Task: structure prediction
Amino acid sequence: MKNLKQSIVLLSIVAVSFSACKKNTDSTAPFNNRSTTAADYPQSSLPVVSISGDITSNVTWTAGNVYEIRGIVTVRNGATLTIQPGTYIKALINNPNVQNGVLVIARDGKIDAVGTANDPIVFTSYRLLDGNPNTTATSGDFGGVIILGNAPVNYSKSMEGLPSDGRFYYGGTNDEDNRGTLQYVRIEYAGFFVNSNWQINSLSLGGVGNGTTIDHVQVSYSLDDGFEFFGGTVNASNLVALASYDDQFDFDNGYTGAISDAVAIADKNSWHSTSGGNSDSNGIESDNNYPAEDPTFSLTPKTHPILINVNVFGIENTNGISGLGYRNGIRERRGSEVTLVDVIVSGYSKGIAFDADANSSLSDLNSTSVHGFTSSVTAAVGTYVDGGGNTLIVNASYASAFGVPQPWYNTPGSPSTVTLPSWSTGWTKLVY
Result:
């Protein structure tokens, strides 16, 4: 995937950024996911090693310990953090308005986190590593993982949710910037919330270049977005986003990389973000930038990613949905552009929505199947298959055609019955 962009010139998709969202999330509201008294991981019996401050020389974290991140831990000064397969990482107990359990790879640092299908690397809730099977994991128990790079962005700034003191800026001129590797990694119950303008996602990538390897990564029950790409050119593949509070995938600041073989799965039992009193939780959301930074939405590079063989699944019906529910499968706005190739969008009020400030003529849909309870596509060019207007057919052919015969998390008997693509076998987790 590193150089996929070189061979695919016309493909692209966009989704909104966290700084561009400006949404309301209630960090005190119960996150009614399926976890009740999830059993602790057996790693809870391992020795705990506390980590704080900057990492400025090469270090290795091993599977023989559980690593507890205190505050913001930043890898910088040319150092590489190596994390061995099967290693578990947690945060110290989080307190409101204080970032904790946040791992940052700065523009002059690297990460080498290479798990395996049988032994993934897991960032998770401290409640699943406390030796008490009666404690329940909650979104925000872990802070999040942030990688900052030197690839192009259309507006350089400090990463949202981190101090604005120069240490956490991202972006540069190197398309092929390499910040290391994330493979076979799960990030669970992550996210940090201060207010609607200042939050941290499960995995945030700011100005990360296509020399970086990101594949086989799952984010689950994020307090904000699951994956967010703030500019950069990094390509990513084999991604799973499960039940994020806000958007499953989010793109902003001129992201121009490619995303292939990815699945977003909603959970109608969870709470959802709002904007102006209305639901604003989307499968994918996309901006070129926030209006205060880009009033005409013309800054370059334009947010224009590639989405290939990506499945965005909402819910099979709206009966019994909690809160305000879900909004759009894909929302394009604020100058964003998109090309979808072999993409499935289903189970949202609107399948794909282009706001008036997102020029749909600059976007394209190719062999894409779309369904929306209210409408399928508000405006688009290219070829797509309407998934049936207002009636969603469970196990429809446009789901099974991509190797996902049962994608609905809330079907009776799920999530154990949810069928994911074969590349997800072993390292992913749907049942908590």
In short: The mean pLDDT is 83. The longest strand covers residues 364-377.
